[in-house]
Amino acid sequence: MAEEIQLKFHEDAEKKKLHEQLEEHHKKLEGIKKDAELLFRNETFRSGEFQGLTKREVEIKVSSETDVIRVHTGIEGFDELIEGGIPEKSVVLLTGMTGTGKSIFAMEFLIDGALHNEPGVYISLQESLEETMNQMRFFGWPVDKLAEEGKLLIVQPELYNFDGLLTTIEDSIDRVGAKRLVIDSISIIGMYFEEPFKIRKSLLDLGQMLKKLGCTTLAISEVGEGEVELSAYGVEEYVSDGVVVLYYIKKGGMFLRAVTIRKLRSTRHSTKIHPIEIKRPGGIVVYPSEEVFSEAG
Q1: Which tens digit of pLDDT belongs to each residue from 113-146?
Q2: Which residue in 62, 99, 110, 253 is deepest, having the highest Cβ count within 10 Å?
Q3: This prediction's pTM
Q4: pLDDT at site 278
Q5: pLDDT tens-digit profile of 30-68?
Q6: 263: closest CA among 288, 238, 244?
């Protein structure tokens, strides 16, 4: 009987200790939540463990504590949907039909990195070097200055063969020590091959190479008007760590742009469709607290 009482006392003590630990953990989470609310409103941290830190320093600190290093995209409102940023060295498919803002999104991602000493490479398989530069200038981004400083490299490879493209990507990354990479667009890769099997295999090879290079990559994919597929060849989304979908949705008598995150590894991301705007100067603005209640087709 005495042993049963002692055992029960021990169990009660353990439960009490566990309860106290849970309460302490809950209080800490509440504090982090309040700081996060300040973070995403771009306000100054006046108290707590983040006191005196800038927004970017807080994001790095939080990322390191959760063992996931996250790359800030620079897209206003977007990082709030993905726990502060894209997991470092991920390959993310940025997909949508024409006019949804894919290239602008990707350019802004590179500019943000370059402004924070994370050099980037933009591989343009469609537009010329000057056309790409002009589009960046259009939004008031200091593209010329960043290029002169070696923090931004825009490349238009000659479309002769697939192996040559891979070599160009690798050489460009080495040239500036790139941390960020954009390929616009991987849908063009189909031009190198006639057989669907070879196209899919090439995309698999490309995906594997990109992960070995260690850059955080946005790979743009074009889909046709009204299509429900996420990519041109049906394999890109499977070799990517994440999929971000941009929409052009008819609502009433007008169209609006929107974004959703279909998947993103190691991330508790929003699954809702959020409206976006393209502003000049500045670029893309995501409205994380708003939703689009239309069927995005």
Answers
A1: 999 999 999 999 989 999 999 999 999 999 999 9
A2: 110
A3: 0.76
A4: 97
A5: 555 455 444 444 444 444 556 666 655 665 555 555 578
A6: 244
